[in-house]
């Protein structure tokens, strides 16, 4: 399974993904699910992937091949973020058709993506691209998008994320969301990749790759757990509890 998320705040974008693609009692594979495409000073894209690994790898490969083909549509030539999302969606649907056409085992080749970034002259944004190739955009009321195993990490995003949140606070929130998912679902696992894009920079920002024994990641996880325990202890007491206020 997979968990990836992107957050859009006024200061920029945050991207976070796990790296586990197969889990079992004695078999675990890890592959990066975060892919960046940067034309410094002109455009920046980050692509998060979930679903069939063969499909996602071919889509990323074709995206990179198109960058080297002057006559082809590519992330360097699309006129807008929406057009970039449409282009990635078309590529994904096409790859799935090809994969399914030569399959005899009824394999599911579906894949989902989150594409985020900025093109010079536009505002930053993030898009969720469905297996069918269609997509949705984040909004001010819902400034984050998720793919994969999303339910465990969603509560903190719903409660905390808003456009005015600082970029670093949004990044910490993303790590807590990821940690909550990892604790509840063994098919999601490290290394965790975190990417920060600062609005209007049009270049690669800070990036981290965190294992479960990384001191910073452990401090985030332990601090969140301790904070939850304190918050629970500070909640109002029932009337029948000793020492409860009337």
Describe the structure.
The protein has 246 residues and is of the alpha+beta class. The protein has one domain: 4-Layer Sandwich (Glutamine Phosphoribosylpyrophosphate, subunit 1, domain 1), CATH 3.60.20. The protein is 33% helix and 27% strand. It has five helices and twelve strands. Strands 10-1-2-11-12 form a five-stranded antiparallel beta sheet, with helices on one face. Strands 5-6-7-8-9 form a five-stranded antiparallel beta sheet, with helices on one face. A two-stranded antiparallel sheet has the order 3-4. A hairpin with a 5-residue loop joins strand 8 and strand 9. Helix 1 crosses helix 2, helix 3 runs antiparallel to helix 4 and helix 4 crosses helix 5. The longest helix is centred in the middle third of the chain and has 21 residues. The termini are far apart. The mean pLDDT is 92. Pfam families: Proteasome. One of its GO terms (biological process) is proteolysis involved in protein catabolic process. One of its GO terms (cellular component) is proteasome core complex. This is Peptidase.
Structure summarized in a few sentences:
The protein is an alpha+beta fold and 246 residues long. The chain is built from five helices and twelve strands.
CATH topology: Glutamine Phosphoribosylpyrophosphate, subunit 1, domain 1
Order of strands across the widest beta sheet? 10-1-2-11-12
So how many helices?
5
The largest sheet is: 5 strands, antiparallel
Shape: globular
- Mean pLDDT comes to 92
Which spans have pLDDT < 50 for at least 5 consecutive residues?
none
Count of separate structural domains: 1
| CATH class designation | Alpha Beta
GO cellular component, one term: proteasome core complex
Protein name: Peptidase
Organism: Igneacidithiobacillus copahuensis
Pfam families: Proteasome (PF00227)
